[in-house]
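Re: your question from the hallway

Yes, I did run it. Sequences:
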Amino acid sequence: MTFTRRETLAIGGATLAVATLPGKLMASTSDLIAGVTGGAAASADGIELTAPEIAENGNTVPVAVSAPGAVAITMLAGGNPTPGVAKFTFGPGSAEQSASTRIRLAGTQDVIAIAEMADGSFAAVHKTVKVTIGGCGG
Amino acid sequence: MAKGVKPRVKVPKSASAGEAITIKTLISHKMESGRRKDGDGNTIPRSIINRFTCAFNGTSILDVTLEPAISTNPYFQFEAVVPEAGEFHFTWYDDDGSVYETKKAVKVA
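Structure:
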């Protein structure tokens, strides 16, 4: 089996594109987390994010987030036209630092939750949600 | 004021002192994201609720900043402590400046 020059170039290009794709997605997730924490390292413990693995309709995706001892929880969706989703700030009257809501997702992407703890440290978690029909009405 | 906005809140009528209760809130609102286009290709301007707060007898429980990525008819569920008999005060702030409020009293059994 011999490849012409054109074929070799095409295969090489495709391999390169596949190899760089996951790295790019990961980078954007960690960039978004760093944007909220101000570059401080975020631990993976102390925060829990509940989201469906597959969401049929991106217009209403139920998500729940819980982080005991958190002052605030920021939710982001990196694949949306604007990554911000919501910021929950818990007051002294809250029993448990948890909340659930319904969000819009433009397509399959990582949903990120970042908790700011009372001592100023951060905890972050992300979960991939597959979206069948996007929810941005484009 | 956006049309047909109706807040709905579910709070237990009574609780024991210091008990943690679950509160569910829903408000009917279109939450126009500002990204959709109408039939002529014009962008429909953004019109969302941008903030929601809940307080009990003046003590803050939850303060949420909403972005356009929150679904139509924003729904929230969260936990609150009831230290004494009193009133929950829920407030939603619309992009157009309107404020929607509702109150729920809780008895301590």
